[in-house]
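Duplicate of earlier report; MoxR family ATPase input re-posted below.
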Amino acid sequence: MEDNSSIDIAVINQKIEKESAFVDLLTLEMNKVIVGQKHMVERLLIGLLGRGHILLEGVPGLAKTLAINTLSKAVHGSFSRIQFTPDLLPADVIGTLIFNIKENDFSIKKGPIFANFVLADEINRAPAKVQSALLEAMQEKQVTIGDETFILDKPFLVMATQNPVEQEGTYPLPEAQVDRFMLKTVIDYPKLDEEQLIIRANLKGSFEKVNPVVSVEQILRAQEAVKEVYMDEKIEKYILDIIFATRYPEKYGLEEIKPLISFGASPRGSINLATASKCYAFIKRRGYVIPEDVRAVIHDVLRHRIGITYEAEAENVTSEDIINKIVNEVEVP
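Output:
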């Protein structure tokens, strides 16, 4: 841990304030098309700045596709959408070798994964081998076609969606694969007044044009700047206490939730919680992390990383309820 005396918070704060100036521009631009859904837009930015990926869960028609499409337009990046279906093959995602008769040789045809923003629509509709091809690309940030390896474009953000309503004919993502998503965001219906605006805009058919307000270079610079956001040792300890409480609740005076948890968050959980907290502080134009930042992102980072037992299911206890109990119990620095 760095010595506190050698860290000038004021200098970091100034730098972050300057580097994060584009956040407001980007949010304004997205708000031209996306009504409400502030939480989803913020989480997309956290995923983008933290070099992570997002799993979005929500019923159809909540502007999930529209959100990532709008973000790609506002960032001046490339966008591709993959509709996952039961007959999809890994080659349909990453690309394949095609025999070229003229050349009498194989040429490489790249798949839709080669874009800055990739929407994996209804990821639980395709079989495991397609899901794992996508998840490998997400993890390694590279793809192998034939005997050639290609590095994917930067920034690279995958937003996968799944519909919580239908479970028939779907292939749920295994726990180990869900863990690769930095955030799992559950989105809800818009508020009444927001939906009124949505109806009006759609009936008029007059959506404002989204302009590219941020360059890809600015995003890459911001990804580096996020690393400089200062995190005190007390905040690190707070994050670790929360993660360890998911594994050993009895050590934190939470004996009653021990039978409800089948497994706790992995070290990937603590890394992502720290990264997401830094990204949230950056979005709020601050050069240091406060406990509120951790609490703001904790549900999105941990809801898919805590396994619940049959006992919990019988008692209608969700991973959200467990997170709430832990957050209320663990001492805030």
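The chain has two domains: 33-203, 227-329.

Merging into the original ticket.
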